[in-house]
TrEMBL record:
PANTHER family: COBALAMIN BIOSYNTHESIS PROTEIN CBIB (PTHR34308)
Gene behind the chain: cobD
Function noted in UniProt: Converts cobyric acid to cobinamide by the addition of aminopropanol on the F carboxylic group.
Residues that span the membrane, as ranges: 52-70, 77-94, 147-166, 282-301
Pathway entry: Cofactor biosynthesis; adenosylcobalamin biosynthesis
Family indicated by similarity: Belongs to the CobD/CbiB family.
Secreted in keyword set: no
Protein name, UniProt field: Cobalamin biosynthesis protein CobD
Amino acid sequence: MSLVLAAFAGVILDGLLGEPRRWHPLVAFGGLAQRIERRFNRGGNGWRSHGVTAWCLAVLPPTLLALLLARLPYVGWLVEVLALYAALGLRSLGEHAQPVAQALRLGDLPAARQRVGYMVSRQTAELDSAGVARAGTESVLENGSDAVFAALFWFLVAGAPGVVLYRLSNTLDAMWGYRNERFERFGWAAAKIDDVLNYLPARLVALTYALLGRTALALRCWQRQAPQWDSPNAGPVMAAGAGALGVALGGAAIYHGELHVRPDLGEGPAPGARDIERALNLVYGGVLLWLALLLPGSLYLA
């Protein structure tokens, strides 16, 4: 089975089943990562070298295992499909975002704040409806890149070991990649490796969003606004996504009690409930576009 056909199977499986409700491998990995961090970053005193060692211990053994299992006769193809299924978050993205849009549409702001709080790390208790919609739209655009497109990209490049390497690295960045006293040094490797792995996928995602939305505006926002963003990969994705939707994102947000004044993204009115769904449609349409572009080549090689 070619990787493209395996990718189709993995996407279909994700759509049918969603995330595993029990025994999710990323949950188990998160527990392992916590134990490794306690060992190598005791008291928040770990150095960069400790972070590199911890990253290797957490990521490389599962990646090697995926490589070996994917090469097994008869069942290797199943390992490929299951690895992508476990790494994808396409259906889960909709399951988190749709209730936010629905609550906003019904005028239930407390419920909307609660549901969007499951998606973002910023404080949501005092957000108005536009702030909730902005947070939800930004989360869909960024997580669509990280949890969907980048996983699909690395699967198509390197199969099961590629997607395992990427997804575990991305998870460690989410756990260790903070710029605070505890993780400033220890989490440096996790953050930098995730930046490298996401560099090309993020730009392909930005282009995908642009092609599926207001193309000229998306490309202009990408060029002008992305360099102002503090993340080299989130900037292009979110600027292009905001431009593609024709809405205004970015601006001030409170993270862990601290106000962050972020650059403006996109052009147009403040987002609403419908724009969360429009962002989801960008992600869904982008996945279909990627697979449609790859399918003819896979059939030729089959």
